[in-house]
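User: quick one, sequence for these tokens?
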């Protein structure tokens, strides 16, 4: 992999705006029976009696309120108290329409829920909570995942197993909101879906796949008064103007003929437009986001100049003294060197990397384990380097790595319980590019797929190399498993050492962007160099074996994250 430099910017966390809610920590529920019934999301008209008053809840009056289960296996009762008969049980993440609340004789609060289209039930508040809308930050939410039926006339059940009664059937291609996943007694993974406005159902994972629905992404104008164009470039007609601070829904990205990056936005309800990235930033819709990477710079000896833009030809904004430390709010490569932005007397200024030393502080990323049948989102980032020609085959790194990614996506979707997305060729690697896209698609894993290049004259290097994030043990494990699996199929024994490398040691400690940028968003990432492409025999092998390479990558993902097979 030879790196082509392109300008990259990372927005400060303060620019990443809007709502994200999370589930409470798991709690131990009272012991429950094996009965599993369907859940609902729509309130019906019903009359309930509280401790002191009788409250009538009309249909729709609590339509914006839901009860979300936070315990692992929670009993539902016919009344507000443990002395009432059990009417079923439910699992963590299930949600029901909220009807009313009641205090039991022991002082505990119970919630009445719409259990099915014709039944209500009660659940203790110790193992549940009320939300005004369905949660937006868990896998049990319509904003994240959709279940797509892949079989013909597939049975839907009222519980996670073939022993449960049929709730209906679904045709190939039918789509439903994903609510949760569960392993049945037969060891198979089942998906809970929103079957209708009032009922849920379960479908076996063998005849369905998961798609991830991205959160909305936005473009925020940071220029004074910026022209919007009908196409990606200044030669296109003006579509309108936008003022600093205005925010538009992001649609896509494109490089103009002059190599400048432009964003397509939803300008009005019916019109789209383009804006130059020089006068706008991409941001997500999550003001709860906290970066997993904090970058600090220390000014080198002497006094160093700072500028209004990441370019020494821009306006000079003064000097900073050697030894001073600053927290970086943006960084990027202008094609010549990396620049860092920080606040100086309330103003944003830029300084060249040549004048600073860099220190990165990472938060720990939680270990991920999907052996329980939960559904991971795997983001594939094939090389965006068409300029890296292969030594044989009249092809290049980008073409071949997209072939590998296509085969890997097919394997993962057909054989494993997971959701998969491949970054398009026009989406570039940067903190506000592929990394932000992976975050907004709720990615658990970011796999950059590349082929390697040899700087020596002989061009006789062989073998895979995995670059990992050193503060993330699971990142290193994935890199090790990738190298191991590639070693099983490689035509020649690897002659490179080491085979797994700290991906943050390159470029004066700033690291490979494929490793660093996803980690900024808390995503486990590696850069997988599957083989060398600048010796002819290895290049031919890569071209002829995309399926084998994809299988090796799938095996490494399965071993690292304990992915479940369908």
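Assistant:
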């Amino acid at each position: 992999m030879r790196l082509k430099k392109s300008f990259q910017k990372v927005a400060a966390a303060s620019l990443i705006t809007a709502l994200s809610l999370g589930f409470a920590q798991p709690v131990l529920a009272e012991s429950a029976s094996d009965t599993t019934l369907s859940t609902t999301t729509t309130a019906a008209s019903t009359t309930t009696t509280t401790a002191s008053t009788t409250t009538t809840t009309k249909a729709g009056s609590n339509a914006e309120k839901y009860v979300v289960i936070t315990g692992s296996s929670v009993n539902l009762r016919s009344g507000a108290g443990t002395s009432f008969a059990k009417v079923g049980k439910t699992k963590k993440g299930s949600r029901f329409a909220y009807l009313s609340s009641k205090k039991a004789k022991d002082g505990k609060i119970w919630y009445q829920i719409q259990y099915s289209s014709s039944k209500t039930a009660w659940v203790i508040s110790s193992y549940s909570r009320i939300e005004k809308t369905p949660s937006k930050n868990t896998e049990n939410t319509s904003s994240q995942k959709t279940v797509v039926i892949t079989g013909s006339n597939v049975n839907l059940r009222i519980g996670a197993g073939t022993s449960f009664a049929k709730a209906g059937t679904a045709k190939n291609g039918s789509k439903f909101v994903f609510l949760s996943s569960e392993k049945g007694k037969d060891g198979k993974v089942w998906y809970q879906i929103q079957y209708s406005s009032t009922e849920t159902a379960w479908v076996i994972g063998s005849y369905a796949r998961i798609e991830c629905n991205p959160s909305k992404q936005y473009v925020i104008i940071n220029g004074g008064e910026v022209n919007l164009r009908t196409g990606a470039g200044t030669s296109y007609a003006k579509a309108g103007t936008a003022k600093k601070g205005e925010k538009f829904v992001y649609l896509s990205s494109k490089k103009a003929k002059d190599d400048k990056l432009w964003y397509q936005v939803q300008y009005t309800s019916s019109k789209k437009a383009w804006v130059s990235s020089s006068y706008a930033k991409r941001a997500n819709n999550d003001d709860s986001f906290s970066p997993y990477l904090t970058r600090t710079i220390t000014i080198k000896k002497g006094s160093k100049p700072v500028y209004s833009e990441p370019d020494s030809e821009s306006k000079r904004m003064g000097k900073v003294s050697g030894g001073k430390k600053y927290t970086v709010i943006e960084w990027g490569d202008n094609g010549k060197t990396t620049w860092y932005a920080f606040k100086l007397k309330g103003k944003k200024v830029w300084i060249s990397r040549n004048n600073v030393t860099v220190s990165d502080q990472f938060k720990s990323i939680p270990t991920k384990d999907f052996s329980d049948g939960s559904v991971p989102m795997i983001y594939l980032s094939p090389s965006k380097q068409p300029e890296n020609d292969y030594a044989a085959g009249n092809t290049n790194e980008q073409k071949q790595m997209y072939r590998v990614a296509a085969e890997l996506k097919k394997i993962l979707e057909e054989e494993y319980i997971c959701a998969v997305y491949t970054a398009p060729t026009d989406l570039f690697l940067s903190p506000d590019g592929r990394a932000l896209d992976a975050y907004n698609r709720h990615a658990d894993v970011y796999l950059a797929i590349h082929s390697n290049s040899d700087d020596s004259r002989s061009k006789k290097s062989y073998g895979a190399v995995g670059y990992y994030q050193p503060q993330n043990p699971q990142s290193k494990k994935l890199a090790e498993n990738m190298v191991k699996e590639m070693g099983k199929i490689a035509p020649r024994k690897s002659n490179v050492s080491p085979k797994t490398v700290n991906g943050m040691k390159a470029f004066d400690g700033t690291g490979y962007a494929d490793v660093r940028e996803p980690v900024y968003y808390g995503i486990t990432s590696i850069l997988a160099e599957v083989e060398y492409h600048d010796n002819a025999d290895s290049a031919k092998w890569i071209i002829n074996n995309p399926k084998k390479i994809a299988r090796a990558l799938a095996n490494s993902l399965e071993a690292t994250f304990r992915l479940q097979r369908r």
